[in-house]
Amino acid sequence: MGILIFIIVGAIAGFVASKVISGKGMGLLWDIVVGILGAFLGAWLAGLAGLGVDMGTFTIGGLLSAFVGAVILLVVFRALTHRGMIHA
User: Fold this and answer.
1) Residue at 44 is within a domain
2) What is the DSSP string of 11-50?
3) Going by C-beta distance under 8 Å and a sequence separation of 6 or more, which residues neighbour residue 81?
4) 84 falls in which pLDDT band (50, 70, 90)?
5) Does residue 13 lie in a domain region?
6) How many CB atoms lie within 10 A of CB 62?
7) Is 77 a domain residue?
8) Residue 43 scores a pLDDT above 70
9) Cβ atoms within 10 A of the Cβ of 83, count?
10) Domain count, the chain
11) The pLDDT of residue 13
12) What is the pLDDT of residues 1-38, one digit of tens each?
């Protein structure tokens, strides 16, 4: 059940982060993918900072860390694609 919560939290975070960064999103599927990857990144970064985030349960801390991770991924993706390094 924990991985399902992790995916749901990541999907929500990716959708919100995409709307915040670009205002329109990248499409539902890509928003979910970015959110799930962002959830992993956010949980890892929170662990490095000494903050315990349990992504197996639906918590505000887990949602916030997933959101931050998704925002970081979106900013890096936009920086790479807008400079012509990756042709998406």
Assistant:
1) yes
2) HHHHHHHHHHHHSS-S-HHHHHHHHHHHHHHHHHHHHHTT
3) 87, 88
4) very low
5) yes
6) 23
7) yes
8) yes
9) 8
10) 1
11) 84
12) 577 877 788 788 888 888 888 777 667 788 778 888 88
| Structural domain harbouring 75 | 2-82
In this structure, the dihedral spanned by the alpha carbons of residues 29, 39, 64 and 71, taken in order and rounded to 10 degrees, is: -60
DSSP class of 53: -
**Whole-structure pTM value:** 0.76
Secondary structure letter of residue 56 according to DSSP: T
Q: Which of 70, 87, 80 is nearest to 19 (CA)?
A: 70
- Residue 61 located in a structural domain: yes
Nearest to 40 by CA among 65, 12, 71, 75: 65
- Cβ partners under 8 Å of residue 30, min gap 6: 18
CA 5 to chain centre: 14
Which tokens is 42 given?
């956010």
pLDDT at 55 (0 to 100): 61
Taken as a whole, the chain contains a residue count of 88
